[in-house]
Structures are given as C-alpha cells and as structure tokens.
C-alpha cells in the first residue's frame, strides 16, 4: 500500500505517519461532500432576497470556502503526482501553501 507523503504541520519535512493513499482519497471525497453541503446551504440562504441582500459578502465567503475544500480534495487525490500546489487556482491559497511548505522545509 503506497502512502501519500504529507508535509508535517510542525515542520521537519515529511510526516512520519503519512496518510495512506486510500485514506487521502476518502478524505478528499468527504471534503467534496462537505463542499456540496455548504453550496446547498448558500443556495438556500441566497434564495431569499432579503437574506441575500443582507448577507451577500458572507454567502460569497461560503462559496470561497467550498472552492478551497475542492482544491484541497484535488491535492489529496494527487499527492505524489506532478503539479501539486501549481494546480491550485486560488492564488492566495496557493501562496499560503507555498509559504507553509517553505517554512516547514526550512525548519
């Protein structure tokens, strides 16, 4: 069974308890499910004109969170493949990931 090598959150390179690829895929599927649930919630809330007008910025943040979840799911599915952070289309998220990886590598 191959393992997905994930950066250690505390620094020090690759985590010693790497996530097995089947678990990484299962986690990705859960993120996609959660993203769909959030999107449905945002749609329901946005269907009411008054709620939409009062909370447009918050509803847009929900959409952004779902995009982040989908990007993380894609990364979990592609660990070990070419692309990695380069495939993340949310620029600020990609920048944070690069900075975090660089910080962990330097530690």
Number of strands: 2
Low-confidence stretches: 1-16
N→C terminal distance: 29 Å
Q: Would you tell me the overall average pLDDT?
A: 84
Indicate the overall shape: flat
Oligomer: single chain
Radius of gyration: 17 Å
Enumerate the strands of the largest sheet in spatial order, edge to edge or round the barrel: 1-2
Largest sheet: 2 strands, antiparallel
What amount of the residues lies in strands?
A: under 5%
Secondary-structure class: mainly alpha
* Count of distinct structural domains: 1
- The H-and-E topology, N to C, reads as EEHHH
Helical stretch count?
Answer: 3
User: Helix fraction?
Assistant: 55-70%
What's the layout of helices and strands?
Blueprint lengths: L2 E2 L14 E2 H26 L2 H29 L13 H16 L1
Antiparallel strand pairs: 1-2
Q: What's the quick description here?
A:
The protein is mainly alpha-helical and 107 residues long. The chain is 66% helix and 4% strand.
Structure description:
This protein has 107 residues and is mainly alpha-helical. It has one domain (18-106). The chain is built from three helices and two strands; from the N terminus they run ββααα. The protein has helices spanning 21-46, 49-77, 91-106, and strands at 3-4, 19-20. A two-stranded antiparallel sheet has the order 1-2. α1 (21-46) runs antiparallel to α2 (49-77). Residues 1-16 have low confidence and may be disordered.
Key attributes of the depicted protein:
single chain, 107 residues, two-stranded antiparallel sheet, 2 strands, mainly alpha
